[in-house]
Design brief:
The chain is mainly α. It contains 7 helices and 2 strands. Strand 1 and strand 2 form a beta hairpin. It comes from Carboxydothermus hydrogenoformans (strain ATCC BAA-161 / DSM 6008 / Z-2901).
Length: about 220
C-alpha cells in the first residue's frame, strides 16, 4: 500500500472531518466552561470525578488524535501489510465508527461541564455496544494480520481457520453489541454484569472455536 496525500485524503477524509469537529467544538466551548469540569461518572451515572478545564477539555481530543495516527501507521508496519488492501474499506469504517464514539463522549463531557444533565450512564454502554456491533459487521471481511481481528495462534497459523473464525465470530460480536446497548436501560448492577460477562464469553468462545477448527484441519491433513 503506497502512502500518498491523494490516497490519505481519499480514505480518511471523513475521519479528518470528525477530528476537526471534535477540536472545533472544544475550542468553541472552552471559554464558556468553568475552571473544573466533570470527567468521571459512577455506575449510577453520578459525577464522582473532576478535572481542570485544560486537562478535561483536551485529553480526549489529543488521545483520539494519537490513536488515529496509530491506526494510520499500523497497515505499514504489519508484516502482513499486503492483506490490508483486501479489507481496507472496513478498516477505515471501523476507524470512523471509533472516532464518532469518541466525538460523542467529548461532546458529553463538554455539555456536562456547561451544566447540562448528560445521560452518560446510557451513552457509554450504547456507544460501546455500537463499537462491538460494528466490529461484528466487519469481522467476516478482515484478512489475516497481526493487529486487527481475532489473532490467536491458530488463526495466524492457518488462513482457513482465520476466515472461518472471523465469519462465525462476527455473529457473536453483533449479538454482544446489541445486548450491551440494551443493558444501558437495565439496573446498574445488571448492566455491570453484562459488561463483564459478555466480552469474556465472546473472547473465550472465539478462542475455543479457532482452536477446534485448527485441530480439525490438522486431522484432515493427516
Amino acid at each position: 500500500m503506497k502512502f500518498t496525500l491523494k490516497n490519505f485524503l481519499r480514505y480518511y477524509w471523513f475521519s479528518l472531518l470528525i477530528l476537526i469537529a471534535i477540536f472545533g467544538v472544544s475550542f468553541y466551548l472552552y471559554p464558556m466552561l468553568p475552571s473544573k469540569i466533570p470527567t468521571h461518572w459512577n455506575l449510577y451515572g453520578e459525577v464522582d470525578g473532576w478535572s481542570s478545564k485544560g486537562f478535561g477539555v483536551w485529553f480526549l481530543p489529543f488521545f483520539t488524535l494519537g490513536l488515529f495516527l496509530l491506526f494510520i501507521v499500523i497497515p505499514f508496519i504489519d508484516p502482513r501489510r499486503e492483506n490490508y488492501e483486501k479489507f481496507f474499506g472496513v478498516y477505515v469504517l471501523f476507524i470512523n465508527g471509533f472516532l464518532l464514539f469518541m466525538g460523542v463522549m467529548q461532546v458529553a463531557i463538554l455539555f456536562a461541564g456547561l451544566g447540562y444533565k448528560v445521560p452518560i450512564g446510557e451513552l457509554v454502554p450504547v456507544g460501546i455496544g455500537f463499537i462491538f456491533a460494528l466490529i461484528g459487521l466487519t469481522m467476516g471481511k478482515i484478512k489475516s494480520n497481526y493487529f486487527f481481528g481475532i489473532r490467536t495462534p491458530w488463526t495466524l497459523e492457518s488462513p482457513t481457520v482465520w476466515e472461518k473464525t472471523h465469519k462465525a465470530s462476527g455473529k457473536f460480536f453483533i449479538a454482544s453489541g446489541i445486548i450491551m446497548a440494551l443493558a444501558a436501560f437495565l439496573p446498574p448492577m445488571v448492566e455491570l454484569l453484562m459488561f463483564i460477562l459478555l466480552p469474556l464469553f465472546t473472547t473465550v468462545a472465539v478462542m475455543v472455536y479457532s482452536y477446534q477448527l485448527y485441530e480439525q484441519e490438522k486431522k484432515n491433513k493427516s
